[in-house]
């Protein structure tokens, strides 16, 4: 099992969610986050007496899903295809191995809990 964490643009969330459902990946968590990467924020202001200022922590969305090993590349490819704009700030995907998962309701463990 692997945990797929993807930091993406908020406006791409619905496209990515719908695409993941289409490939059979339904269970996920979504967290609103702020952060920065190579994009390093934006500069705003500078009109009508307002000085220019930098916003260096930008709003993003983090998707988290745990998938079977054979679904990992499908999740990655789907997220990339539907989150990419081609511009800086499109996000990152992180993959981590998951040693166990437990379904609270039934006590099932491992891949059966997914």
Explain this structure.
- This protein is α+β, with helices and mostly antiparallel strands and 114 residues long.
- It has a single domain, classed as Alpha-Beta Plaits.
- Helices cover 19% and strands 34% of the residues.
- It has helices at 13-22, 72-83; strands at residues 2-8, 29-35, 42-45, 52-55, 58-67, 91-97.
- The chain has a 4-stranded antiparallel beta sheet, covered by helices on one side. It has a two-stranded antiparallel ribbon with strand order 3-4.
- Helix 1 (13-22) packs antiparallel against helix 2.
- The longest helix has 12 residues, at 72-83.
- It is elongated and about 60 Å long.
List strands and helices in order, with pairings.
Blueprint: E1 2-8, H1 13-22, E2 29-35, E3 42-45, E4 52-55, E5 58-67, H2 72-83, E6 91-97
Antiparallel strand pairs: 1-5, 1-6, 2-5, 3-4
Helix pairs in contact: 1-2
Short description:
The chain is α+β, with helices and mostly antiparallel strands and 114 residues long. Helix content is 19%, strand content 34%. The chain has one domain: Alpha-Beta Plaits, CATH 3.30.70.120.
């Amino acid at each position: 099992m692997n945990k797929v964490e993807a930091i993406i643009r908020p406006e791409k969330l619905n496209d990515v969610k719908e695409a993941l459902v289409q490939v059979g990946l339904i269970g996920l968590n979504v967290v609103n986050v702020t952060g920065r990467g190579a994009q390093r924020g934006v500069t705003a202001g500078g009109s009508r007496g307002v000085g220019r200022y930098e916003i260096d922590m930008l709003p993003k969305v983090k998707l988290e899903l745990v998938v079977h090993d054979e679904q990992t590349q499908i999740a990655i490819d789907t997220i990339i295809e539907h989150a990419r704009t081609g511009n800086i700030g499109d996000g990152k995907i992180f993959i981590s191995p998951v040693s166990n998962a437990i379904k609270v309701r039934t006590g099932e463990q491992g891949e059966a809990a997914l």
